[in-house]
Amino acid sequence: MYLCTGEPAFMSHLGQRLVTILGLSILAVAAGGCRPAEKEAAQQEIELPPQVQPVNDADGDGWLSDKANQRVTLRLVGLEPTRPGDYAVVVDEVRFPLSKDSLDATVRAEPGKTQVVDWPVADRALGAWAQNTDDAKREWKSTIVVSQPGMIGTGTVAWTNRDDKQSITIPLGEKDSIRLDFQTEVETFADPDPADRNADRDADGLLDWEEAQCAQFETGVGDPQRRDLILVVGYTDRYWQMTDLTRMLLRTAFRRRGIHLHVATKRKEGLGLSFPGLMQLDGQTLRREHALSLDEARLMRKDYVKGFLANAAHLVVLANRVAPDPETSWGWAEFPGNTLVVRSHFSVLELNLGPDIHQYQAKDLMHELGHNLGLGHPTQSDARCPSGPIPESERNPAASVMGTPKSDRGNPLAVLKNALARPMDYSPTQWRNVRLDWVRPDSYKPAKKKPGKRETKKREGQ
Ligand SMILES: [Ca+2]
Ligand SMILES: [Ca+2]
Ligand SMILES: [Ca+2]
Ligand SMILES: [Zn+2]
Fold it and tell me: How far apart are CA 231 and CA 369, in angstroms?
């Protein structure tokens, strides 16, 4: 087992005030608080009763062999405000427009004409379970938060598995509003591997039957042809829980790279088999100031992540501090693996600056999750890195959330400058190296035990 300490560069020995000021430039909309949609479907049974299993699902994985599964996509296709401005639209905690360069992109929109866009903002995959009742109509609700500097408005859009167009108007402040035009599209697809329920064509570590089990909750996670990543979130004390800003930043950061991140912070988001929220250790509630170790999080995992999710979901437990090295460590993660611990709040010396300052919690979590996915620190991402090397040009600790203050050790000015500049992103090659399938404990084999193409390549690279 490889362990890795993660201290993304937020340590600043000086310039604390500067951190505070710049921290306030965080995406304004996040502070407005996006609430997760109420998902009534979460109460559904997760096991398919055998007697109603359709005959055209030969491998019994929940996906029909013929082209009769549905993928329903909700697109935002236009917007028109009553006041000109640069707008952002958050749908189910993913912020649009997606941009590879920035997590706070906006689109310019003006009264009197429709600003045309084409953003797929939500989707659902429907398999055998949805066909049993003669192509029944399904309906979902997505929460919308629209903002421009100084204004914010919220609304809900209800959409179904029927081709459809609709518009909703969301009030912004007392006098203004914005119209959003949506289009729903339904495409059909066949089970990509109709004779293998354990197939993983999209290489995300979710086997096809597990994709279907997730998809039956109809929250947007689970599709055999699209990469999914499941993160179960626990905390040792309510005070250390994941913030709304962290949820949105993480979901947006992964979605803009084509990965659908499911963040389970509430019981109803646990996909029936995990229990997000307050986590005890061996039945004991930990003290608020407890420094949590990775080994303790692994023990919690046995109690809070069950069934197939034990092999298919990442678990993060947020705590006051993390052990070992509670004074200096910001997190620990299996490298690679599926469990991580994260220090919830950013503090300098004795001063607690909270979880959201300079997107601290989100970045720290993305750093540790990166280790789970096989990514190393940029300066160490050579042939020894399990997911493969990155080019010399990317081995810059300031260019990726995988950078650490160690890279700037001894130079407080560099620590400060790089901490503020470090993006909430992996580098381009790191994104290509990300291994979602290593969430399964038996999927990762150290190369030296089982030499394969990757190992050969690595040696050549040296
Ligand atoms: Ca099937
Ligand atoms: Ca899969
Ligand atoms: Ca998938
Ligand atoms: Zn690290």
Answer: 9
- Residue appearing with tokens 């678990």: 315
As a whole number of angstroms, the distance between CA 74 and CA 76 comes to: 7
Quote the ligand 2 centre to 100 CA distance (angstroms): 24
- Asked if the bond preceding 336 is cis, omega within 30° of 0, the reply is yes
Cβ atoms within 10 Å of 249's Cβ, excluding its own: 26
CA of 55 to the centre of ligand 1 (A): 10
DSSP 43: G
Q: What's the pTM?
A: 0.85
Q: 199 C-alpha to center of ligand 2: Å?
A: 7
DSSP three-state, residue 360: helix
Rama region for 269: left / alpha / beta (φ>0; ψ in -120 to 50; rest): alpha
Average pLDDT along the chain, 462 residues, taken 10 residues at a time: 41 31 32 36 50 75 95 98 98 97 95 98 95 77 96 97 96 96 97 98 98 97 98 98 98 97 97 98 96 98 98 98 90 97 85 87 96 94 91 90 74 60 91 97 75 34 22
The residue with tokens 């890195």 is 385
Q: How far apart are CA 45 and CA 219, in angstroms?
A: 14
In angstroms, what is the span from residue 223 Cα to ligand 1's centroid? 13
216 C-alpha vs ligand 1 centroid, how far in Å?
14
DSSP structure class, residue 285: P
Q: 72 CA to middle of ligand 1, Å?
A: 19
Q: How many CA within 13 A on the CB side of residue 451?
A: 4
Give the up-direction half-sphere exposure of residue 397: CA atoms within 13 A in the CB hemisphere. Answer: 22
For ligand 4, the distance from its centroid to the CA atom of residue 45, given in whole angstroms, is 39
Which helix (H) or strand (E) covers residue 303, if one does? Answer: helix 294-304
- Give the integer Cα–Cα distance in Å for 77 and 87: 14
Taking the C-alpha atoms of residue 140 and residue 138, their distance in angstroms, rounded to an integer, is 7
| CA 222 to centroid of ligand 3, rounded, Å | 5
Which domains, from first to last, does the chain contain? 3-36+196-461 (3.40.390.10), 67-189 (2.60.40)
Say which ligand is closest to the CA of 227. Answer: 3
